[in-house]
């Protein structure tokens, strides 16, 4: 297991640098969710970018924005954003992302889609060559609660062949309930070998009635900052 302090330092490096390189005061900024994004908000605050208009992607990121004293907005008031900075659970060589480890994939995808640019910040453990190489928990799939059993069944069959389980809460009896009142399935796969297969899955999952959103983010980012253990940053861009 990777050292927690090393991971945390790497997250901080990535979060700080992504803001320094990409955010200007006064911009409309989507704020992702997760532990790395905390450093994004910290840096926006530290730089005194109080004219930035921040749109959250979860209850957690809304709290971060409020606690930092930054300007809070939403997509009904600010429907177009200059940039979103968000974390990821895995980034492969083709910039395919797996997101949703924190269960926020629905709002994250909506906010990213409303942005001119999605910049990803992550520690070194998220950096993969092959899809699914490092993230073994599967693809998070947000589903309407009434549909979770039929969806698990459908996912187990062709063309999906995914083994999906209902994500259970840790300090509460029963399932994780998302900020949108839905459940999350984590769907593991044997092999997704080609980019074509991944892109096909991206679309097919959305076609299942009851699937609200999933954590595959394909063709959504061109820039990823990975904090490294030695205090440097690996920037991957295309
Ligand atoms: O997709 C997400 C939440 O739904 C997060 O961005 C992802 O889980 C990464 O989180 P962290 O920065 O804590 O590693």
Automatic annotation (TrEMBL):
Task: Supply the NCBIfam families for this chain.
Answer: PRK00702.1, rpiA
**What enzyme category does the UniProt record give?**
isomerase
- PANTHER family, from UniProt? RIBOSE-5-PHOSPHATE ISOMERASE
- Pathway participation: Carbohydrate degradation; pentose phosphate pathway; D-ribose 5-phosphate from D-ribulose 5-phosphate (non-oxidative stage): step 1/1
What organism is the protein native to? Tieghemostelium lacteum
Q: What is this protein called?
A: ribose-5-phosphate isomerase
Matching entries from InterPro entries are given as: NagB/RpiA_transferase-like (IPR037171), Ribose5P_isomerase_type_A (IPR004788)
Q: Cite the EC number.
A: 5.3.1.6
